[in-house]
From TrEMBL:
Keyword Isomerase in record: no
Protein name stated in the entry: D-glycerate dehydrogenase
Family listed: Belongs to the D-isomer specific 2-hydroxyacid dehydrogenase family.
A single GO molecular function term of this UniProt record: oxidoreductase activity
Record-listed E.C. numbers: 1.1.1.-
Residue ranges occupied by any D-isomer specific 2-hydroxyacid dehydrogenase NAD-binding domain in the UniProt entry: 108-286
Residue span, D-isomer specific 2-hydroxyacid dehydrogenase catalytic domain: 5-318
Any Pfam family: 2-Hacid_dh_C
Upper lineage: Bacteria, Pseudomonadati, Pseudomonadota, Gammaproteobacteria, Moraxellales
Keywords annotated in UniProt: NAD, Oxidoreductase
Enzyme class, spelled out: oxidoreductase
Organism superkingdom: Bacteria
Amino acid sequence: MDKKVVVFSQLNREILTQLEQKYEVAVVDPRQGDVNQQILKLVENADGMIGAGRLLNETNLHTAERLKVISSVSVGYDNYDLNYLNSKKIWLCNTPHVLTETTADLAFTLILSAARRVPELDRWTKGGQWKRTVATAQFGQDIHAKTLGIIGLGNIGAALAKRGHYGFGMNILYHNRHEKPESAQVFNAQYCTLPELLKKSDFIVVAVDLNTDSKALIGKDEFALMQPHAVFVNIARGSVVDENALVQALKTEQIFAAGLDVYASEPLQESELFDLSNVVTLPHIGSATAETRKKMAQLAYDNLVSVLDGTLPEATVNPLFSHN
Ligand code: NAP
């Protein structure tokens, strides 16, 4: 075992065993103190890293002398300083596609839950408040045949459009930086500017990757354009949305409801959102099913092994340099 791999978050047990059979493995353990200090020490002589959910940049990687690859168990790669990794010729791999359908399922779960007020009315029922037939105070919004506006018609956005179009007979609008005519045609989706989409949609779902253009994409002005019955869903990244503006929009009933899986700061321990009944808050579980997390871990493992074996990984974020 001449190569060393650092595992920087929890990893599927079977994949960890596969790693241990092939490499010297060191696991970062938050119970053992400061995580960044552990990383600085462990990466000194590491060849690869695998994991998710940690900020990795020059601050905690500068001691790495022979690091060749960071294999992220996620599709989003906003946690990594790509410029720094490029400058050091460190490959960054991710896990697209294998989580697309599962995350789209979750996005639709949020649409349904927020529109039909599922968690709120579940608490209401269990709290013994169901004393007579429900009335307008408990009514929600229809979903079928409404207009679904998707911001970011990428892999997950398209899987969501499929559910809306074929499953619920919804009219699909989308907004991207570049039009996607081929993908759009499948769902009869219509391209809109962002303001147009916000004004016309009954349901608005954010499914962009976090980048310099999408940071704070939805704020006060954007909520002001939405219809009072609109349901807003974010499964992308928290920083795409101005959370204070969202809280205000929900408090003042500028929009009907929201469904959130992601937040500017995670894990979310305290938030004004927790005091509001018209928002469904989930703990970043878009891809969190047993099957999909296993597939993601396997793909991340395969990517890591490919780079360390000197072959091309299946999914890379920065395929800029050749092996040497
Ligand atoms: P993807 O296929 O790369 O799709 C992202 C789409 O966003 C692209 O079509 C891109 O198109 C569009 N986009 C980027 N910036 C934009 C902007 N400023 N305005 C409008 N559109 C923009 O990625 P994916 O696999 O669908 O995943 C999307 C993101 O979802 C990931 O990056 C990740 O952050 C998040 N995610 C969350 C979970 C979860 O657990 N909640 C799970 C998986 C993924 P253009 O470049 O043409 O604009």
